Amino acid sequence: MRLRMIVPALVALPMLLGGCGGAGTTSAPGGAATPSPAVPWQVVAPGSATPSPVPSSRRAVSPSAPWWRSMAAAPPCPIGWPTDAQVLIPMLVTPGKGSLTVQWPAWYGPDYRVAAVDQRLVSGAQPAPTWVTVRAGGGCTVTATLSGLRSGIPYVVWLDAPHTPRHIDGSRSLYSGRSAIVKPL
Asked: 108 lies in a domain?
C-alpha cells in the first residue's frame, strides 16, 4: 500500500523540483527553451492553439442565486421567465374563485413548498403559514393551486425551494420567493 503512494510521488518529483520547462530542455539565448540533445522531445498528439474565451452575453449569477442556475442554461419555455440574477424566485399568481394558481420556473430543485399568507392585521402572535408541498414535473414551469381561501381577503404567496443555498450560519430564509398582495375572486 505504501509503495503505491510512494511511486507516483517519485515520478512527479523531477517536475516539482525542475518545473515544467526543466526536464530535458536547455535555455537558448533570448530565454527560449530548446530540447537538449540527451532527451529528445516526444510529440504525443499534434494540435493547435485554442481560441481565447469569449465573454458570455448572459449576466453572471449572483452568490445568492442557486448553484444549479449557473450550471446550465434554462430550457426553452413558453413563459419568458427573467434570466438575470435574482434573489427571489419569480412567480405568476392568478386569482380564482376562493383560490390562487401559482406558476414559477422549475430551475430551483425537484420539490417546493407554497403557502398563501393572510395579510390582515392580527394582534399577538402571527399564525404559522400552511405549506403545500409540490413536486416539479418534467416541464420548465411548476404550477400549484391553493384552494380554500376567502374571497376578497388580501394574501401574499410565499414560495420555498428547500434546495436553495443556506446562509453562512446554516440558516435559510422562510421563503425563496413571494408575490405581491393578491385577492382571490
From this structure: yes
